[in-house]
Prior knowledge:
It is built from 4 helices and 6 strands. Helix 1 (93-111) crosses helix 3 (162-177). By secondary structure, it is α+β, with helices and mostly antiparallel strands. The protein has a 6-stranded antiparallel sheet. Helices cover 18% and strands 12% of the residues. The protein has helices at 93-111, 150-156, 162-177, 226-231, and strands spanning 58-59, 63-67, 77-82, 116-122, 132-139, 182-183.
Amino acid sequence: MQDTPPSVPDFTQWPSFPFEGDLRVKQLDEPVPVEPPRRGEGHRECTACNAPDEAYIWVGERWRVRAMDRPTGLPMVLILESRSHLDLGDLPNLLAAELGVMTVRLERAIRSLDGVARVHVNRWGDGSAHLHMWFLARPYGRLQLRGTFLSLWDSILPPISEAQWRENLAMVAAWLAEFGGRPLAEPPRIQWQAPSSLTAQSAGEAVEEPEEETVSVIEAADEIPEAEAAEAPATGEPANVDTPGKAEEPANAGTPEKAE
Length: 260
C-alpha cells in the first residue's frame, strides 16, 4: 500500500509564505546510518580557512565579515565567521562572549542602513563545520517579508542596484571599524564624464569608455563543476580564490579583539 503523504501545513496559508497554488509534501527519505562530512570535516577542505582577508568586507583579529558575490533581493545579507576553525559548540568562553558582542554590533550596523526595519540572525551549520552566522536585513514596510521565510524571499525579489549594495557594504564595514579591525569594502565609484574641451564631440569622435569587469566579493568555487572550471579559458588575471567558506586560523588569533 502506498504511503499517504502528509497534509500541507498551515504555514502555507500565512501571508509571508512566498508561494501559492497546488502544493504537496515530499515523501521523507529513510535516515542514513552515517551522515556525510561537512566542509571542513574529515577529508573535506575548509573553504573559509583558505579564504584570504581580501574576500571579506571587514576583518578583525578573531572575526571576519563577508558578503555575497553580487547584490540580492534584500538590502543586506552578511555572514559573520570566526577566524579559528571552530563550530558554535566548540567555542571557548572568550570567543563565546565575543560572539555575543559581535552579533549585537553587526546587527546594529546593518539596522543603521536606510530602509532596513529588522535584521534576522540565523545559524544552520549543515553545510560547513566552520562557524558562520547569517544576518539578513528586512526592508522597511515590507510586512509580507516578516518572519521565517525571509531567506527564501531574498532569492525571489529582484536584486537591489549594485551601487546601493556596495554603498551599504562600505557603510557597514566603516561602522564596524569604529570598534577596531580593518574595513575592506569600498563605496561605489562616482560615474561622471566631462568633455576635454568646450566644443561638443561629434558622434564620430565619441569614444566609448571600456566597462570595468565587476570583481566578486566572494567567488563560490564550491558550486562550480570541476569540468566547467577546467574548460574555462586562461587569462592574465590572477585566479580569484575567494570562497564563501571559512578562513584558516592566523598566527595572531590569540590576540584579544579591541574592546567596544
